[in-house]
Amino acid sequence: MPKILGIDLGTTNSCVAIIEGGQPKVLENKEGSRTTPSVVAVNKAGERSVGLPAKRQAVTNPKNTLYSIKRLIGRRFDDAEVTRDQKVMPFEIVKRGDGVAIKMADKEYTPEEISAMILQKIKADAEEKLGEKIEEAIITVPAYFDDAQRAATKTAGEIAGLKVRRIINEPTAAALAYGFDKKKGQKIVVYDLGGGTFDVSVLEVSEDTVEVKSTNGDTHLGGDDFDRVIIDWILEEFKKQEGIDLSKDSLALQRVKDAAERAKIELSTAAQTEINQPFITSDANGPKHLVLTMTRSKLEELCHDLVAKTLVPLKSALKDAGMDKSAIEEIVMVGGMTRMPLVLKTVEDFFGKKPNITVNPDEVVALGAAVQAGVLQGEVKDVLLLDVTPLSFGIETLGGVMTKLIERNTTIPAGKSQVFSTAADNQTTVEIHVLQGEREVASGNKTLGRFILSGIPMAPRGVPQVEVKFDIDANGILNVSATDKGTGTSQKITIQGSTGLSKDEVERMKHDAETHAEEDKKLKEKVEHQNLADTMIYTSEKMMKEAGDKITAEERKSVEEKIEALKAVKDSDDHEAIKKAADELSTAAQAVGAKMYQQEAGKGGEGSEGGKEEKKDEPIDAEFEEKKGE
Amino acid sequence: MNDEQNISPPDKGGQGGVEPSKCEKCDEYLAGWKRALADYDNLQKDLARERTEIRTRVKQDVAHQLIAVLDNFDQAAKFQPDGLGKELEVWLKGLMHVKSQLEGVTREMGLEAYGAVGEIFSAQLHDAGGERSEEDKADQEILEVVSRGWKLGDRIVRPAKVIINNKH
Prior knowledge:
The complex is a heterodimer of chains A (630) and B (168).
Chain A: E1 4-8, E2 13-20, E3 23-26, E4 36-37, E5 40-42, E6 48-50, H1 52-56, E7 65-66, H2 80-88, E8 93-96, E9 99-104, E10 107-109, H3 111-130, E11 136-141, H4 147-159, E12 163-169, H5 170-177, E13 187-193, E14 198-205, E15 210-218, H6 223-242, H7 250-266, E16 272-283, E17 286-295, H8 296-321, E18 330-334, H9 341-351, H10 364-377, E19 393-397, E20 401-406, E21 414-420, E22 430-436, E23 446-453, E24 466-472, E25 478-484, E26 490-495, H11 503-515, H12 517-547, H13 553-569, H14 575-603
Parallel strand pairs in A: 1-11, 11-12, 13-18
Antiparallel strand pairs in A: 1-2, 2-3, 2-4, 5-6, 5-7, 8-9, 9-10, 13-14, 14-15, 16-17, 19-20, 19-22, 21-24, 22-23, 24-25, 25-26
Helix pairs in contact in A: 3-4, 5-10, 6-7, 6-8, 8-9, 12-13, 12-14, 13-14
Chain B: H1 20-78, H2 86-108, E1 111-114, E2 126-132, E3 142-147, E4 149-152, E5 155-158, E6 160-165
Parallel strand pairs in B: 2-6
Antiparallel strand pairs in B: 1-4, 3-6, 4-5
Helix pairs in contact in B: 1-2
């Protein structure tokens, strides 16, 4: 099935995604990046470059490096935006008919042609990555784009050799990426703070469309402005410290720019960061170092006004849509700048609810376009609904804890097996107590069934191997079997409707597990320590028995004392004491064991079996030692 | 799973005993089953690819941080004052050994430095940080390497930042 690309053709960067296995996925470009700079250039040799290479040569070739072309697409020459760009852009914008053209290496191109070059690269990189020809695409545009701008974007796609199946609004795509198109009547705000522009849209989900109720924004507010305030602060601080103005030194300024961007990113997760650029410049007194500490509160102080500025268009958009902020059910964040904690907090404070940021805000628009593409190409035609287990399944093991075999949220049908062993010497039966739930404590979960596997040959604890197999079919029927691997004896139980719990019941059990998490964790730790202590005592006693006269009375006494010490504490709640006593016993037993091996080796005889914790080919330590999982 | 016996062979003559609608359902299920298996198979391949990719990315991330330190060593070397006393000379040499050690680490990671004065600028490899005009040099020739470029295999971890000759 030929793929349809979902393309976010951005002002600063573009991004492309496809649907694969029913899920949207961003495609990396040839350079290995998930976004491509929307930049086109022609060098002196007449070679054209697009994306990162074009951006890299911009400094030395400003007249022939075209960027932010999206600001010009579908515009009339006498539009205010065009007049403004003519003044600030380093390249030449000329009149063609009523519209515009841009000069690049003495040739004139329409914004559609330039955009087509970017789309061509995206298409070519996607084809290379997927190994198949791509002929169709969905391209996103800002919600405020008029018919001429939309038509021009479509033309750009067609020049690039793409059949443009749909032009969709960026905020709609973002909402689609979150699957917010399902609930009729739902009201959504999309807050898009990108590299150079800020857009806010109010959406309402109607019968089978997502309607844009209003849009607003600031076409010249974005990440670049935030970078600028940080750069200015760094320059000012350095000037205060060293009396040198770095803004005149272009190379130093570039290092400051890089450092500012890094600081901005680091302060999204850390409370403070160090701006460390040693040897940034020098004067008659020698080299100078730029070393500053920037705190998040400093950054927020610097950026406060910029963030506050976004609330004005936000309020206007709500007003235009005739909605109160309390009516908004979901807020979707788009654009890299929305990762900034201050931005998130401002939006959260404004609406009184947390905005959605789980989908990468740089990619969310392209991903949403891909979702739309998936619907068009019918990827989700015959939807086969797969169920998941709402709660975990497992069995009760030594110490009354639940050992989970199938974790909750596992897609079914599914199967898993694990090998367990006996807890006591000569144990000939094991009880399989099948449980469902999230508690660590077996008794806190729901019992689904019990059965007994008997006929296990008499053997020391830990030796028999009992394989317990869980298998849930697509209808939620759970089969649990236990097989003694030594004799092949087997028992099983079938539990109907294991996934058919009511939503309330599932919630109650999950909640139950959460509230008991701490005490359960403690109990589990205690059981683990006790099991470890039991095993240590068992192996050490066995070793003492087998050692006979191979060890001195003193050595025997030392180990036996440690065994007694561990026995004395093993049932207490003092984990540290148990651990300490177990460690001491382990050290003492190992020393004796090592000596026994040396004696055996000295005799040239076969190795003694009864040593320390040395395991044979299939180690079994305690009753719930994991052997394998399928 | 006992339904398998009910699946009829493909209806060659069009006169089979199974109703067309049932047959269509069988085909749909078989196609869906095959797709699910294929999806799983592809997922495994994707995961293997992704694992390699993640390893490379982690390496790249670490490389980025190490490169920044090496850059500062390079920068320090540019500012080395003349006429250092013998004691300071020896001390400096020691520091430069630390730099070599760090370079050794990057080499072991598979990183390779590139970018030298005299090469011709290529936007695939270099990032133009500025320009000058020198008559005796070729157009687009690299006049100064501000910071070295770094490659990991054939992937550019960071392009070399250079000043180039621009003959207007």
